[in-house]
Amino acid sequence: MSQPATPAAWYPDPAGSGQLRYWDGTQWTEHLAPVPGTVPTETVTQAPASDPAQALATGAQQPGRRRRGLLIGGIATGAAIALVAGTLTVVAVTQAGGSPSNVAGVENLDDRYEWTQPMLGLERNHHFEVPAAYDLDAIAPDYVEPDPETGYYDRAFAVAVYTDPALTRRAEASVIQFDPGEPITVSAHEMETTVEDIRFKSAGLDEWGLHDEYFLVQRLDEDGTPLPKPRVTPFTVAHELEAPVASFSTDAATGDLRVRWNEVADATEYLVYTSSMDTENGFRVERVLATTAETEWTSADQAVENDGAPFVLTQNEDMRLFDGSSADNILAGWGDGGRTEYYDFGVIATDGTQYSPFRAYDALEVAGSLPYEIAFDASRNAKQWGPSGYVEGIENVQTSVYFTSLDGMTRATVATIDPAGVLDLGDRWVLPLMGRGTRVGEWVPVAKSSTPDVAAAVAAFNERALAAAPTTGGTAFTAVSGTVAEVGAGSKTAPETDLPVFGSSPMVTYLAKHLIAQTPVIDISDYASLPGAPTVSDALTEATYQNPYVLGVRGYELSEDGTRIGVQYEVTKAEAEQLQADIAAKVVEVVESVVTDEQAEAEKVVALNDWLTANAEYDHRALEAKDANGGQVVSGDEYAWRADGVLLRGSGVCASYASAFHALAAAAGVSSVVVAGDVLAGGPHAWNKVEADGVWRAVDVTWNDSPDANRYLMIADADFVDQAARVEDADWMVDSWLGDYATR
Question: Which residues cross the membrane (predicted)?
């Protein structure tokens, strides 16, 4: 079902002011207005010409999150705006022929919504009835604009169904009121799916079952009045086979994706599955990447080979996560924009007759930055051609390889030349220029007269390219398996700690306390099924990124039933306790030496940034050792990615700078977060955002520790330009809260 663009209008303020904020169609503005009926509307600040009263009737038309944003000018549009739906409530759902669901006393982890008791194991053809004493079609123009082509009014202002707990992905559903005043009927509209003659589900057009869970959201009272919070009813349907629990990791040396999952009882085969939503035409597009009897798969075979070359033309070939043109094509002048929305990965189990639903994993989080093909326009622009028509001298060969990643962005990585692949073609050497951490590359001709000793020149080039790489050095936290060994029941009690603990929800802080205490197996059964609970991956990665006293988490394993997490740590419990104590003491020492109670928040940020840049050095050796080790941190160098690196040793990479700054800021009373993403010219990176005087601003301490000192101090996201241009990942914070940290 198509989702029209969000119109300019007043909406509940995502900053939590309790007022309405104006959305101009592309971004939040500074204009505020009171909620009608609370204070006089004369207090509107510079009100745009639209009615604030309409803000309480926005429903699904509130500004939502477009993952990665549109592909514009080679740079994603920054931190996307989170789904803002925290000001509407609705009436109880009634099952067809049944009674209203229980809405009282439901414990939840996201109080922006009113959560009802889940409805589990419903029949595939189940339909819901929502009481509605109003005329749905008649009131629709008061809430939303019609689709300009079809004239259709999106009914999500009243009722909608989603497939993710963050309520960002719409399910295909039918929302119909047959006559004014009759209940609104909500039923499945998931198309029968046939790919390569394989039917994923034995369900008809009007049956649920493709996904393992759904979320029914109601936004209007029975009389058609918007209420303070949307009401959310999670539900599942009965199925014969369980959905496999998958985990994902990346081969740091090649950029290929690896997927693992648990064995499902009675299943004989598994389908590695990807899907996306065609938001213009309103149907789902599916693809089977592989069919296997094994419980793991790698995308190594998803490549278009290049005969005679040590590199491939494309890799991860069938996994492209953008619709339309890549950023490289747009910059070249022959692209017309693209979308990166609603892409999923998952695994479907089958016994040859029945098919399980699939657990949807956000493909952009899993694989968005993985390589796809050379960015031809960016690469062409990087060439320095000589009068011979070739590059004159290997010193003029570019030291970066530009590639288009699966999300359509243009990224760069350090160039390397494979000496064994050099071709001797008469008057020129043809060099295989490859990108580190990828399998893509291109041929570059160099005049033989300018480079007589090609072997020595290649060795010098590889050394020079590595030295010229930007100081990024971020690293990913990924699941390492799909099952957890039977090593114990797991702990359900969060250990007490005197150390600061950060988290956007009780589930995240619960996990963070366990990670700080080095709990080997964490029982999450009290949280995983609660309404509003984030995914395990989301909660774990936030707990790791946002807690500087979590030391050395290598990865995790999730039990088949999803109730226990096995965690692998880099250091022993005793080592962790000593490091945590030393970090805490150093934090107190630093803050007491450079911060005073009289300083404003912005002044504290500057003082802490300046202390770090004066007392820490970037650990180039650790980063180079990691690159030389196939992208894996060398044993003994783990400190360079933790807060103790720059705080206790005076040396670390960007992750260490960001984590240390976060610890110092918290002790100084400044709100901050660690942000992870990709510098388009260099790869994974970590930096910070801080809240000073009620406004979030970006701080990149790592890049401030340079001859161009403090250029990236208290700036807006949009100020990261040129060599510093970057995109944010989505794994440093639970998805539904990412938009709260957009700068302005």
Answer: 70-93
Q: Which two tokens stand for residue 175?
A: 């929302």
pLDDT tens digits, residue range 272-320? 988 876 666 656 677 889 999 999 999 999 999 998 899 999 999 999 9
* pTM over cut 0.70: no
pLDDT at 116: 86
Q: Are 308 and 284 in contact (CB under 8 A)?
A: no
CA quadruple 265, 266, 268, 272: dihedral, nearest 10: -50
pLDDT, tens only, 386-401: 999 999 999 999 988 8
SS (H, E, C) 288-350: EEEEECCCEEEHHHCEECCCCCCCECEECHHHCCCEECCHHHHHHCCCCCEECCCCEEEEEEE
CATH fold of 583-741: C8orf32 fold (3.10.620)
User: Options 2.60.40.10, 3.40.50.2000, 3.30.70.330, 3.40.50.720; which CATH number does 246-373 get?
Assistant: 2.60.40.10
Q: What is d(CA 136, CA 410) in angstroms, rounded to the nearest whole number?
A: 45
Average pLDDT, whole number, for the chain? 79
Q: Look at residue 256 and tell me whether its pLDDT is greater than 90.
A: yes
Rounded Cα gap, residues 361 and 397, in angstroms: 40
Distance CA 71, CA 50 (A): 29
In 10 A of CB 323, how many CB atoms?
A: 19
Rounded CA-CA distance 728/736 in Å is 15
| Region of 314 on the Ramachandran plot (φ > 0 left; ψ -120 to 50 alpha; else beta) | beta
Angle between helices 573-594 and 601-615 (to 10 degrees): 120
Assess contact for 443 and 430: CB atoms under 8 A.
yes
**Strand-pair category, 410-417 with 400-405:** antiparallel
Q: Domain boundaries in the chain?
A: 1-79, 88-235, 246-373, 385-467, 583-741
Residue 141 to residue 136: CA distance in whole angstroms: 10
d(CA 79, CA 301): 33
Most confident of 92-106, 126-140, 524-538: 126-140
